[in-house]
Specification:
Elements lengths: L6 E2 L3 H4 L6 H9 E2 L12 E4 L3 E4 L3 H10 L11 E4 L9 H16 L3 E3 L6 H7 L8 E4 L13 E4 L2 H10 L2 E4 L3 E7 L8 H11 L9 E5 L1 H5 L3 H9 L1 H4 L3 E3 L4 H14 L8 H13 L10 E6 L6 E3 L7 E3 H7 L5 E4 L7 H11 L16 E4 L4 H9 L2 H7 L3 E2 L20 E4 L15 E4 L2 H10 L5 H4 L13 E5 L28 E9 L6 H4 L2 H4 L6 H7 L8 H4 L5 E4 L11 H8 L4 E4 L4 H9 L3 E4 L1 H10 L8 E11 L4 E6 L6 E6 L5 H8 L3 H8 L1
Parallel strand pairs: 1-25, 4-5, 4-7, 5-6, 7-8, 10-11, 10-13, 11-12, 16-17, 16-19, 17-18, 19-20, 22-23, 23-24, 24-25
Antiparallel strand pairs: 2-3, 3-9, 13-21, 14-15, 22-26, 26-27, 27-28
Helix pairs in contact: 3-6, 6-27, 7-9, 11-12, 14-16, 14-17, 21-23
Cofactor: [4Fe-4S] cluster
Subcellular location: Mitochondrion
Pathway: Amino-acid biosynthesis; L-lysine biosynthesis via AAA pathway; L-alpha-aminoadipate from 2-oxoglutarate: step 3/5
Length: about 700
């Protein structure tokens, strides 16, 4: 039976006439095989040919998947980048063998390769001009959002996608809803880009931007934000829940590249006089249309910010450094590492705290109770820091150097947090157990705050080191969040039909999907709940066993209450957690060919479509069902007596009560299921599609 995936609710007729935002315009330029005259918008599935695709230590698993598809030739070697950065301190023979395999594969296929020690892949992608303003660059790593800091649309892909790009040059993407984040005012002195994103994660902590693309706006405020700050902010839009975080191309960025040109020289293949002239031309043309649609608009007044710290163990908890200083939070370890905050300006900010006078013989020493680890984001940055005397000041203060790579940020190598310890880091994630023991506490702060805390022996601010008063934003941060009204009335039982012609359906693709809705009434149903972890790394689990254990950690009665052909409907953020593909394939094994939810984890969505499972995202429908059964006895899994019919050619979902022929109680327009996606589904998923192309 054919299956498909993740169609977001969208009114079709109104969208045909509106302009495009910057995200949609960049996707338009990188989309392939679009119908003539097709203008892409939020909700559309598109086949995309990214400018570049980076993978790091996972390059070998991607290579194994690539070869498992029967592929023998990289479609475009110039499109692929391999960079070793995650486990570079691991000198075991097993890891060194993997690294040799990656290097040999890259040499065999003429792929650009960067060895361990050259730097973190995302930083290399920026330094070497792969991620470049107004292009679309992906990576098989969640912090591909970083590229938005230099005006590139950067977004992560899973390993199957990466293998598909290696083999065919392209993969698929569904354009997410786009949120506008407007920055106003000017940052106070010593407040950094990290403080902005930490504040945003903590202040807007109710999933306002979950699975959105973000476009940062505010011409005056952004003009005064250094590019390094933009990279930090874009990097951590991942932790905020977004799929991308895009800054505009402005004069500040153009000046950054003119400076970069002096570093790389005139003959660089991607950063040169010709590409910069073309960038300047395109930056005047490729801007959001005046009538572009944004799902919501969030604003923050930068002038009301101070030093902010996330934690412990959550980016959704945000406090001022002033408040935490009053609580005397002692620390054991401090970190200035990672793709988030280990660029030259970050190292300088820390050095200015440990050595404010500039005299290396008169530095503020790291507290004897604290270990302070530093690693530049790339070997180029470390060399620049040495040339400027920055590195030496940090070492003189007692910092412990690590090689350019991910290291403790990902819980690898030296200096990890041990049970009972407290750490503060300029990295991106402080999830429980990520940087060491699950019994440790982790906080996030700017490089200056991390350096000050290392000196003080507790979480504090640089002003304390300087003998000054800590700014504490007594008036509070000024923010707003405005949701854009939808173009349709989702509650109507007779919503207007699309003004567009019916979608053309490929041979072998069904025109209608039907089934009874079975309610799994919970938000954040995670992949462990869908498919138990104890089976995840067993490669020989038969389909029958997968069907038996499907959803058993969520509800042991699920198997007895469902049957083949049912349609599961659940709450918001369905499929959160790990990236295991079995979360999708076990549902298929159970005979569940369609899942409806208020929203989905993006990784689950990608794994679903890559395995030919259908999901529909209709938040109004789950709310209606919850209202219907609000007073009923609690059941984790409930047969609803509501039936769903999806009219694929006309992009409409119809809900009836009692039977498929019962009274209509709800109708909803959904996104078009274009032929590019239909073709992937007809082939049984992305791997089958790739094999057909080979």
């Amino acid at each position: 039976m054919l299956r498909y995936n993740n169609i977001r609710s969208l009114h079709v007729s109104a969208r045909l006439l509106r302009g495009q935002n910057l995200t949609e315009k960049i996707v338009q330029e990188h989309a392939v095989n679009l119908p003539k005259g097709k203008t892409v918008h939020t909700g559309d599935y598109v086949s995309i040919k990214p400018s570049f695709c980076m993978s790091h230590d996972n390059s070998w698993p991607v290579a194994l998947k690539f070869m498992g598809l029967g592929a023998t030739k990289i479609a475009n070697p110039r499109q692929i980048v391999n960079a070793l950065d995650h486990d570079i301190q691991n000198k075991s023979e097993k890891n060194l063998t993997k690294y040799r395999n990656i290097e040999n594969f890259a040499k065999k296929h003429n792929i650009d390769f960067y060895p361990a020690g050259r730097g973190i892949g995302h930083q290399i992608m920026v330094e070497e001009g792969y991620a470049f303003p107004l292009n679309l660059t992906v990576a098989s790593d969640s912090h591909s959002n970083t590229y938005g800091g230099i005006g590139a649309l950067g977004t992560p892909v899973v390993r199957t996608d990466a293998a598909a790009i290696w083999a065919t040059g392209q993969t698929w993407w569904q354009i997410p809803p786009v949120a506008k984040v407007e920055l106003k005012g000017q940052l106070p002195k010593n407040v950094a880009g990290k403080d902005i994103i930490v504040a945003l994660c903590g202040l807007f902590n109710q999933d306002q931007v979950l699975n959105h693309a973000i476009e940062f706006t505010g011409e005056e405020a952004i003009r005064n934000l250094p590019v390094d700050y933009r990279l930090t902010i874009a990097n951590m839009t991942t932790e905020w829940g977004a799929l991308s975080g895009l800054f505009p191309v402005d004069q500040t960025l153009l000046d950054f590249y003119k400076g970069r040109l002096q570093v790389v020289g005139p003959n660089h293949p991607r950063i040169n006089e010709r590409t910069l002239a073309e960038l300047e031309r395109r930056s005047k043309v490729l801007t959001p249309d005046s009538d572009a649609r944004y799902a919501k608009t969030l604003t923050i007044d930068l002038s009301t910010l101070t030093h902010y710290v996330s934690g412990p163990n959550s980016v959704k908890i945000s406090n001022t450094a002033y408040d935490l200083a009053q609580k005397d939070v002692k620390i054991n370890k401090a970190y200035l590492v990672s793709c988030t905050n280990a660029r030259l300006s970050d190292l300088k900010a820390a050095a200015d705290v440990v050595c404010p006078t500039g005299d290396i013989n008169n530095v503020n020493k790291v507290s004897p109770d604290v270990e302070f680890y530093i690693a530049a984001a790339s070997s180029e940055i470390e060399q620049n820091a040495r040339d400027a005397g920055i590195w030496q000041k940090l070492l003189a203060a007692g910092c412990r150097p690590l090689p350019s790579g991910c290291g403790p940020c990902i819980g690898l190598g030296a200096g990890l947090l041990e049970a009972g310890e407290v750490g503060i880091s300029a990295t991106n994630r402080n999830f429980k157990g990520r940087m060491g023991s699950k019994d440790a506490l982790a906080y996030l702060g700017s490089p200056a705050v991390v350096a000050a805390s290392a000196i003080l022996g507790r979480i504090g601010a640089p002003e304390e080191v300087f003998g000054q008063k800590i700014p504490h934003s007594a008036t509070g941060v000024k923010t707003t969040c405005e949701i854009t009204p939808t173009d349709n009335s989702a509650d109507s039982t007779s919503s207007s039909a699309s003004s567009s012609a019916p979608i053309e359906i490929l041979e072998g693709f069904p025109r209608e999907i039907i089934g009874e809705l079975v309610l799994c009434d919970a938000d954040n149903v995670n992949t462990d709940g869908i498919y138990p972890g104890k089976y995840t790394y067993q490669d020989d689990v038969p389909k029958e066993k997968m069907a038996e254990v499907c959803m058993e950690n969520y509800d042991s009665e699920f198997g007895g209450k469902t049957k083949t052909g049912d349609i599961v409907i659940s709450g918001f953020n369905f499929g959160t957690g790990s990236s295991r593909e079995q979360a999708a394939t076990s549902l298929l094994a159970r005979g569940i060919n369609l899942v409806v939810a208020g929203s989905f984890s993006n990784t689950f969505s990608r794994n679903s479509i890559n395995n030919a499972l259908l999901t529909l995202e209709i938040p109004t429908l789950i709310e209606k069902l919850r209202a219907k059964f609000a007073d009923a006895p609690k059941e984790l899994t409930r047969r609803t007596g509501w039936f769903l019919r999806w009219d694929v050619p006309n992009a409409k979902v119809i809900i009836t009560e009692g039977s498929l022929d019962g009274p209509v109680i709800f109708e909803q327009q959904v996104s078009e299921l274009g032929q590019n996606l239909q073709e992937i589904i007809v082939k049984g998923g992305l791997e089958g599609w790739v094999k057909s192309k080979l």
